[in-house]
Amino acid sequence: MTQRVAIICGGRSSEHEISCISAGGVLSAIDRSKFEPVLIGISKSGKWFLLDDKTSLTIKNGVLPVVPETGNPVSLDASGFISADVNLKIDIVFPLLHGPYGEDGTIQGLLEMADIAYVGSGVLASAVAMDKSFAKPIFAAHGIKVAAGFVARASDWAKDKSAVQKQADQLGYPVFVKPARGGSSRGTTKVKSAAEFAAALEEAHTFDPKAMVEQEIRGKEIECAVLEIDGVAKASLVGQIKIDPKYDFYNFEAKYLDSATTIELPAAIDQKISDQIRVKAVDAFIALGCSGLARVDFFLTDNNEVIINELNTMPGFTATSVFPKMWGATGVEYTEVISHLLASALTRNNGVLGN
């Protein structure tokens, strides 16, 4: 007997389009002998619609997919997902939503209130991982080194620009300025001098009134994927992100639009360092109380110092995304990864009352 899986994509965040692409990947690879997918899209204005599972969710001629603003409405209450007065009888939700209103604990709380099992981390872990200003001190408290930096709120900037500017100057340039609760590098700027700081901070504040300013870490960008298999968090082989030199850093265009990024699997680094990163990835996953999956991003400096950048509780999930690629290199194929995630959604508790 198959289980009905609601694949939810789109959403109100700046990562709407990337969410759609992730959903397209899962739809193409889910084991239909075990699971029956039901595609639900959330438009940019926040409307929920039942979509045909043959909906195109790929990049075509450089154009990113979006959820339309019209269609068959979907609602969710204690009785489950409803469309056209019919209960969709969903067993598991795969919330392939990136960023605010999806990866930040909000939809997780809604699903817990509706008592529906879902893939990924619960309310608290999702919220903390989404807000880098809260995640960083937790990592540091568990012995995982983080980059030096500070929080720059829009209200503080409006009140005293010179004080915030001084903090950035004291860090020393270059610095990175990014939304505290953003993703896919949207709103992120590499600032090379004090003269560039104000514009970068104001750009970050268009995405989030809370921004992070961090000292540049020079070194390799290393990533590790964590997946719960039979209740145990396991780390994949680690990979190194390689970016076309025309890009200053791993930004949105380099990630998604220009074929400028590749991942070297396994990363050509010392095995002891690789093993250390895998341990730290699982430590970070446990420290935040994560469930199901996470992609953990690190910097490896020239003197082999491992510094965590961030943890993503719902990373990009197409067949060519970094997370599935790392597991493929580790011996767990894309379809199998999806099956593990759906199985784990039914066997663990997200909140104090369980699923």
From TrEMBL:
Keywords: ATP-binding, Cell shape, Cell wall biogenesis/degradation, Cytoplasm, Ligase, Magnesium, Manganese, Metal-binding, Nucleotide-binding, Peptidoglycan synthesis. SUPFAM superfamilies: Glutathione synthetase ATP-binding domain-like, PreATP-grasp domain. Residues 136-343 form the ATP-grasp domain. The keyword Transport does not apply. Coiled coil: none annotated. InterPro entries: ATP-grasp, ATP_grasp_subdomain_1, D-Ala_lig_Van_CS, D_ala_D_ala, Dala_Dala_lig_C, Dala_Dala_lig_N, PreATP-grasp_dom_sf. It comes from the Bacteria. Pathway: Cell wall biogenesis; peptidoglycan biosynthesis. It is an enzyme of class 6 (ligase). One of its GO terms (cellular component) is cytosol. Binds 2 magnesium or manganese ions per subunit. Gene3D superfamilies: 3.40.50.20, ATP-grasp fold, A domain, ATP-grasp fold, B domain. Its EC number is 6.3.2.4. It is found in: Cytoplasm. One of its GO terms (molecular function) is D-alanine-D-alanine ligase activity. The keyword NADP does not apply. It catalyses: 2 D-alanine + ATP = D-alanyl-D-alanine + ADP + phosphate + H(+). Cell wall formation. Belongs to the D-alanine--D-alanine ligase family. This is D-alanine--D-alanine ligase. It comes from Candidatus Planktophila lacus.
